[in-house]
Each structure stands twice: as structure tokens, then as C-alpha cells.
Amino acid sequence: QKPILEVNGLKKYFDIRGGPIGRKVGEVKAVDDVSFTVREGEILGIVGESGCGKSTTGKAILRLIEPTAGKVTFLDKDITSLNNSEMRSLRKDMQIIFQDPYASLNPRHTVEKIIGEPLLVHGMDSVKQRTERVQELLEVVGLSPYHAKRYPHQFSGGQRQRIGIARALANNPKLVICDEPVSALDVSIQSQILNLMEKLRDEFNLTYIFIAHDLSVVKHISDRIGVMYLGRMVELTDKNKLYDSPKHPYTQALLSAVPLPDPDLKRDRVILKGDVPSPAKPPSGCAFHTRCPLAMDICKEVRPVFNPVEDNHFVACHLYE
Ligand code: SF4
Ligand code: MG
């Protein structure tokens, strides 16, 4: 499968300002040199604890926030060099679904207006056409066309996320970045939404980047999974490889906390020491060295390179160099 998206050396640093005149006193390296490729039609999961930079990565890819450095190639175009109007027309093809569907839907607009807005923005001027398309989209996400005249507060959380999905799909995008789309939902609703998203992927040839903090959620839906820690991608490979033979000590620790389907099998539980360090003061060398049970001297000094250790399996760790 050819790549639809290539992310190369992506960085997003935020200034920290302080004092009476708001001088720059430091920076947070929210995303620090992240590279990966997404193939057409796949679902790439990205996992990590909150604050690891996964949402920022998603937003920087779409240029909803401007990357500090790096190159993003989408459909063979270097989108980091596009001007605003070129970017606007490309946005049709790349969409985002947010974690909190309530916050991302305007409470004063009807569903019809909410889903119709991206259609209008991209040139569907006819009210009749828009109304028809909205009805079609509501059906696609499993809602009744009668819902078109209602307001977001009249729906349950799961239904609101369906509305968010309908809005994202309005203009037939190719890539959808899903930023924790089920994290705010009840567990019983989560799998319904995940099943819907999988069905839509097949039906409309979508490619997803699926961001989650919960390994069991990405396991369900992803083809490949990338693991992030403190702004860096530390491991990336096929879902089964990642679950069966994780290589990075951080991935091993994360997985050791996930129950196995067969209760007779047990992984050794790896308990990490301490908390995640502040991204404003990431440890030197390997950012994981302060918590890694296998840390060596070199880990404090030298940042490990994100390298393939075997075919289609990338790891950033000195144990494999
Ligand atoms: Fe642990 Fe060193 Fe590997 Fe980092 S580079 S994960 S500290 S062994
Ligand atoms: Mg987030």
C-alpha cells in the first residue's frame, strides 16, 4: 500500500512565558522529532499517556497548529509549504474528530447546520443539496433524518459523536484524525462507535490516525500502532507484533498493565518508578531513562535514534542499537 501521509521530523515547541511582561522563560517540546508513515486505507493507532504529544501531533499534521519544524507530505504534497488558501482546499481531504463531541458542536446550531457547514464552506451553495446530503450523512452514521432539526443537547454522548463523525465525513475526506473519539463515552457505547468507524473506513476507503491513551481501544481498531512518550515516538509496528513482542521497555510496561484475554497467561507486571517528567524539562538522552528498569549509562547521555530493528518494526532504544 502506498503512503498517503508522511511525517518527517515533526516538532512542535510551545513557549512558556512568565513574569510581568510575559517574557519567554522556557519551552515545552510537545512534539520532538516524530517521523512515521501512514498507508492508504490503514488505521494507525497512536497511544501514550496524557501529555505525551499525541493530540498535538494530530493537530500539527492538519496544521490546526503550526509545526515548529518538520515536513508533512499528504497525497504527495508538502503541506507544510502551502499557503492558507491552498491549505483550506486540502482540508477537505483531511478531517479531525475530537474527543469531546459536545465541546466541538456549536450548542446554538441545529444538527443540520452543524453538518451542513463544511459543505457550505467547500462550495455546496444549494440549500436543497445540503439538506439532502445531511440526511444521507445522518443515515450513514446510524441516526434518523428526523434528528436534523434538533440541537446537540438533545442527544446522548454516543449520538453526539455520531454527529461529529457525520460532520467530518461530509466532504468525503481521505484521511481522518480521530483524537480520542471514544474516551469520553461509556464503555458500552465505545464499541458501538468503534464498530461504526471501522465500517465507515471500509465503506468509504478512509484512512485513520486513531489517537488514544487506552491500549485496549487501539488494539481493537488499529492495523499498526505507534507508542509515544514525552513528545517522542518510541515504538511503531504491526498491532500483533506490538502486543506479542513489544521491544521498547516503555511499551512493555504499558502492556504489562493490560489484562490478557486468557487468564492463565500472565505477563510480568512492570512497575515504572516515578511519574512522567514535565515536558518542559525532559530528561537528557533517552527521555525514558529516569523510569526505565533497563537503563544503562549511555541512556542518560545519548538520545536513541528511532530505527527499524526488523522489517516494519521501529524502536528508539539503545538496547537494540
Ligand atoms: Fe531504557 Fe535506555 Fe532503552 Fe531508554 S534507551 S528505553 S533508558 S534501555
Ligand atoms: Mg489529547
Automatic annotation (TrEMBL):
| Highest taxon in the source lineage | Bacteria
Pfam families on file: ABC_tran, oligo_HPY
Provide any one GO MF term from the record: ATP binding
Please state the span of the N-terminal signal peptide per the UniProt entry. none
Q: Where in this chain does the record put each ABC transporter domain?
A: 16-255
> Which terms are listed as keywords in the entry?
ATP-binding, Nucleotide-binding, Transport
* PANTHER family xref list: D,D-DIPEPTIDE TRANSPORT ATP-BINDING PROTEIN DDPF-RELATED, TRANSPORT ATP-BINDING PROTEIN
> Member of which family?
Belongs to the ABC transporter superfamily.
Checking NCBIfam families in the record gives:
oligo_HPY (TIGR01727), PRK11308.1 (NF008453)
For this entry, the protein name equals Dipeptide ABC transporter ATP-binding protein
